[in-house]
Amino acid sequence: MKDETKIVTAGRNPEGNFGIVNVPVYHASTILFPSLAELQKTHVARAAGERVVSYGRIGTPTTWSLEDAVAELEGGYRAQVYPSGLAACANAILAMVKTGDHMLVTDSVYGPVRVFCDNFLSRFGVEVTYYDPLIGAGIGELMRPNTTVVYTEAPGSQTFEMQDIPAIAEVAHAKGAVVLTDNTWASPLFFKPFEHGVDISIQAGTKYIVGHSDVMIGTVTATKDYWPALQKGANMLGQSAGPDDVYLAQRGIRTLSVRLKQHMENGLAVAEWLKGRPEVHSVLHPALPDHPGHDIWKRDFLGASGLFSMRLKEVSREALAAFLDDLELFGMGYSWGGYESLIILADPTTYRTATTWDNTNPLLRLHIGLEAVDDLIADLKNGFDRLNAVK
Ligand SMILES: *Cc1c(COP(=O)(O)O)cnc(C)c1O
C-alpha cells in the first residue's frame, strides 16, 4: 500500500471500538482487575514487554493507535510516544548510552539536544563530539572504541545541510554503533529512515504530525533489536503523553499527505521567488537544484516540507526589524509544521563548535504554511519595501 492509503488505515481499529472510526480517547490512571489471577497474568505479560492495559502511564489503546501509525509510516518495528519532541530526542539517547560511552552528534543538531548533551549527559560521564554535518563516510576518523551512538539530522536545523546518512550508517554499523536520526523535517512521509541504515528515528510530532500548532508530542521508532531498550527506558523514566494530545496527533496523521504536498509546493514557490530578490543573499532549501546537498536529497528523500532558510544581504538591524515587524501572514515564533506561515531570526555562530558559520548575512528561517502563495509573496514583498525604505 502507498503512504496515502497507509495514513488512512494505520493504527485504526473500528472493529474493536463499536465501529467508531477513530480510536477513542481513553483517560486512564487506575485499571481495575476482576481477579487476582487476572492481575498477576497482566503483571507477567507486562514484564515480558507485551501490550496490556495495566496502568495509565504505560499506555492505552489511544497511545497504541498513534504508536502503530507512526511505526508503520516510518517503516520501523515499533514506536514509543513522549510528551514532547525534545523528550523523544533525550529519551532515545538515554536509552542507548551508559557512563564511559562516546557519542557523535552533528553540529547542525536541533539546539536543545546540544544543551541536553553538554549539560546533562556530561554529568553522567558520556562524552560528546560534534562533527561536520557534511562528513559522510569520514565519520570513521572520529569513531573511538567506546563510540556507541551516532546522532544525525537531515537537513540540519536552521542551516539545512544534507547528511549522507547511508554512508554514515555504514561506517557506524561496521564499528558497532547505533544510528539515530531526527526525522522531523521530512516527517514519516518524505524520508524512510530504516531503508537508509537508521536504527532509531525521532519525530517531533509537535510539527507536521499534529500540524495545527496546538499540541506538544514526540515519537521514537526503533528496529526490533533496539526496541526493548527504548521501551524500557521510557517506562523507567515515566514518559507519558496526555490522551487528548495523543488523539490529536493520530488525527493529524490522517491528513499528513495532502498537507505536506501543499507545504512542499508552497515552500518551493516562495523559495524560488526569494532567490530572485535583490535583498536575498542565498536560499537554503535542499529541493532547489543549486543547494549543495541537492543530490543527496534527490537520492534519499521523497519530498520536501515547507521549512527552509534564507540569508539576506548585509542589512541594518533597523531595516531587518522593519521587514519583520509588520509582516501580516508570517508570524514570528518558535516551532513550525502547523498550517500557518512563520519566520524567525537565527544565529548559528552562537552554538556551532565543529564548523564555522559566517553571520554577516542574517539567517532567517521560514515555515511556509497553507496560505495562497500569491498572498505570502505579497506579504514578503511589502516587507522588502519597508526594509529598503529604512536601509
Ligand atoms: C521542534 C523540534 C524538536 C523538539 O520538539 P518539541 O516538541 O518542540 O519539543 C526536535 N527536533 C527538531 C528537528 C525540531 O524541529
UniProtKB/TrEMBL annotation:
The keyword Lyase applies. GO terms for molecular function: cysteine-S-conjugate beta-lyase activity; pyridoxal phosphate binding. The keyword Phosphoprotein does not apply. Its EC number is 4.4.1.8. The modification N6-(pyridoxal phosphate)lysine is found at K207. It comes from the Bacteria. NCBIfam families: cysta_beta_ly_B. This is Cystathionine beta-lyase. It comes from Sneathiella litorea. The gene is metC.
